Amino acid sequence: MDKFIINGDTPLKGTISVSGSKNAALPLMAASILADGPTKITHIPKLKDIYTFNNVIRVTGTHVQFDEEKNELTIDPSHLAHTEAPYELVRKMRASFYMLGALLGREGAAKVSMPGGCAWGPRPVDLHLKGMEAMGVNIELEAGYVIATAERRLEGKSFTLEPSSVGATINLLLAAVLRAREFTIHNAAKEPDVVYLCKALQQMGADIDGIGTGILTVRGVDQLNSVDFRNAPDRIETGTFMIAAAMHPESEVTLTDTDPQDLGHFPDTFKKTGAKLSIEGDKIHIKAPDIIKPVSVKTAIYPGFPTDLQAQWSTMMTQAAGPSKVTDTIYFDRFSYVPELKRLGASMKLDKNTVHISGGNSLGGASVMSTDLRASVSLVLAGMVAKGQTEVLRVYHLDRGYEDLEYKLNTVGANIRRIGGE
User: Fold this and answer.
1) How many CB atoms lie within 10 A of CB 160?
2) Which domains, and CATH codes, for the chain?
3) Which residue in the list 33, 85, 118, 357 is annotated as catalytic?
4) pLDDT per position as a tens digit, 212-237
5) 3-state secondary structure (DSSP) of residue 372
6) What's the whole-number mean pLDDT along residues 126-149?
7) Model pTM greater than 0.85?
8) What is the layout of strands, in order, in the sheet containing 180-186?
9) DSSP state string for 210-257
10) Is 198 part of the annotated catalytic residue set?
């Protein structure tokens, strides 16, 4: 397995281009299966999860072509003949479960393995299945697989998501746009990933009301057209690089190809640290503060503080001039990075779903281990401000969600080497 060798501490100066969003791309890829011909999606990142989902889609007989140089993906479901997503592929990535809604929507039948994914936290698919049953879909569980069947036109009715769920909202949309006479999702997720999917489905010919709100109403149509559309910028990558730029007092970084509107309340919280932030079009300019002010946060559903940025925020708070705390109200056990940061010298104490951070810690290089995607990048951020050499093991987690991470950071002054082995 690859690892990073990071030599700190290094200020960052220059420009970074933000990649397309993995979390927005995967639903768009699933939606392409519903079209009557080939769909082209641009601004697709070269990430392991993208390659994995390409293979999941190919199993159905769908033609998938990924032009890596152009970051363009073409999906043609004209020859889709199989309605199964097998365990050996779905277990690698939870988002493969979107095949349930996509295959059900297109063919009226789907056999999809229960999903796998990150090692932390239970994220059950009960809401997906209960929502589909409310729509009128017949659901059976057999040997670790979900077997779903649906009539050509389902009555639909409505379903309330408790709690709100991005994945369940997406799966229900994919199933409903060609199947349900009328189906309303209450407490629907409002994240940009859902909004981008809804707009893409509308462009294909879907009838959806309430986009961007907590109530989505879908009226089934007879077919969806093939279209071309551009994937969203990665808002979590954007936030990660904003935090990286704020952690060293000499850093000054400009991020390009962003969509600041997708960041919700995060920029307002970010500015409380004392970092200077200016936005012009798709560009975000960050100048690090001389002293980072401690800012406590609680994660919340969009537009609140993203759970996917809490590990990075905690890492930045180790450098703040005073105590802070970070609470994750969405995933209670997403703190595997804490003992690893403590190995680097951070003073942190974990109490259930809150980490208390003393701040003002001088970090020193050590060997640390990645356990999931966001924990991994938090260790990279720490290594860039730590004195001496930091070894980050198992960086394959990073390759699931950050395109060319070490290249992008090295171009603005970081000192990161990827080497094989553990």
Assistant:
1) 16
2) 3-19+233-419 (3.65.10.10), 22-230 (3.65.10.10)
3) 118
4) 999 999 999 999 999 999 999 999 99
5) coil
6) 95
7) yes
8) 154-160, 180-186, 215-219, 207-209
9) -TTSSEEEEE--S-B---EEEPPB-HHHHHHHHHHHHSSTT-EEEEES
10) no
